[in-house]
Amino acid sequence: MKKITVVVVDDSALIRKLLTEIINSQPDMVALGAAPDPLAAREMIRSLNPDVLTLDVEMPKMDGLDFLSRLMRLRPMPVVMVSSLTERGSDITLRALELGAVDYVSKPKIDIVHGIQEYADEIADKIRTAAAARPRVQPALARGAHALPALANHSVSTEKLIIVGASTGGTEAIKDFLLGMPPDCPGILITQHMPELFTKSFAARLDSLCRISVKEAGHAERILPGHAFVAPGHSHLLLRRSGANYMTQLSDAPPVNRHRPSVDVLFRSAAEHAGKNAIGVILTGMGKDGALGMLAMKQAGAYNFAQDEASCVVFGMPKEAIAAGATDEVLPLHDIAHGVMRHLHTLGSRAIRV
Questions:
Q1: How far apart are CA 142 and CA 209, in angstroms?
Q2: Has 56 been annotated as catalytic?
Q3: Between 3.40.50.2300, 3.30.70.660, 3.30.470.20, 3.10.580.10, what CATH number should domain 4-132 receive?
């Protein structure tokens, strides 16, 4: 079996040593080398041609983001960012994902040696995912770059809900999807697998780009048209009803499919409380979280969309949902927002005729 080859780039000798040991301890991967800065990394990439790069953000001689930007223009390859789990670190990591990084691992803030060892399985899993991913550079999209027309049907906007799940590659996929949403679109609930400090920054970044309002979800918030709620990294996000209103609910219940927040938890709550009024969207991601929840949505009358293989960074979660018979349409990423709005316009036209 051919091993996944990796080059580690980090200005910390300790982190380089620990990551190299973790990689070499895996039966299916090998660290070809470790570079202290991007200039040394550039030479290693040329001479060793690794499958995956792990890249620190803050380094001497050249900033990690500058290096990543140049790398993805000149030699696109799978990159896993290794960043600090801080508010500043989360902003930088989100920018790295925009530039084309496949995924990220957060450095422990204290007791690095022990903490890195605890993260060994996560690091190995993300390197495996990156090796199988399709890294791509996407141009920055301006507000309203592919904006869709308003619904102009108040009943559809208030009665329907859009329920979205994603994982690896999902930050950019969700951004692409939300950029098309008009201000009167139905309320949107989103679960994206992310650490706690990242979700607030992610929601704020989306809010600055989109025509709709986007925020990190709180507990017991009323879900209104033109508003999207992102599951916080510390809790499951669920849909609930209070009289005629849809409401958010947060839960600290144990992880589902190894995740909290879990897409399955959100989708199952939508099946229970929204039924045929829900529209499900499952985007790029590793694993199977969301497949059975989306099937429950379909069985309850929801209409569901999945991202197609060619446009996914990782065709895991959509593939599982499709295989389960949970989807109605499979579309390229750039067509999913159009598909959702087309379906909503159809529902609105039927309501007017009736």
A1: 7
A2: no
A3: 3.40.50.2300
